[in-house]
Fold this sequence. Notes:
By secondary structure, the protein is an alpha/beta fold.
Amino acid sequence: MATIQQGQTALVIMAAGIGSRFGGGIKQLAPVGPNGEIIMDYSIHDAIEAGFTRIIFIIRKDIEQDFREVIGERIEAICAQRGVRVDYAFQDLRDLPEGYEFPEGRTKPWGTGQAILACRKLIEEPFVVINADDYYGKEAFGKLRNYLLSHPSDDVLRFCMAGFILKNTLSENGGVTRGVCQVDEHFALQAVKETKNIVKTADGAGVEEDGKVLPIDENSHVSMNMWGLTREMVPILEREFEHFLQTNPDPMKGEYLLPIVVDQLLQAGEVTVQVLETQDKWFGVTYQEDKQLVIDSFKALIEAGVYAADLYSC
């Protein structure tokens, strides 16, 4: 393993999702900026600006050619000019621990926990994980990087997460899944619960379930799968993946999800997770109808001077 120099941090981008709700195509590669930029362009720009020294893309082999043509080769050139390293990892349904057989007929990815394991041989430094199709804003990248570098782990692993405000993360076009967090007065994460079908309501937000909408506090902190982790998380994910495979009741659709693993580790006292609040507004392409809103949102950010029209010009 290479020697880690002070200040090195990686951005791990999970881009292997099928994107079934997007209605066809590879949603992570949909152009949303004035010059054909995709959402990942803005995340990578913000990470480099915050001081990240490495980008790791997690993709699937079957989208590699499209991915490299749309963003990979261009980002490699931009990163090379800035001394930022770029690597690729490939999430594979058949990448299972020794002794486990692949359930024939499964097409659904194993989930975000297994996605991180796809780059287990690459991760060396502290790293931040994000989704490819989510825009997180500038604030969180610097906060998570600074926390990881200033809070080394000792007998307990010290992780962090970007704590978004629920009302800033909802889609106008349907339900979303969010990790709803319990946070103490010191912004330490106490629990995180993956909650599906959270929708906008006239009163704020609610969880759609069995034809009913149950109210939920729109000011709750939620996880958007933006986690600050360290190399020590990799063997834990390997261990817990085996446990998941042993106990998973649905071999065709069961998912090994990073927030669920983090919550289990919290309850066992193996880790601490600091919630670093951000007031930035999330947007992303979950549904086809979201795309125009994302295009309009980036246009507004450019007009406000948050980004240059030529994104990497400064």
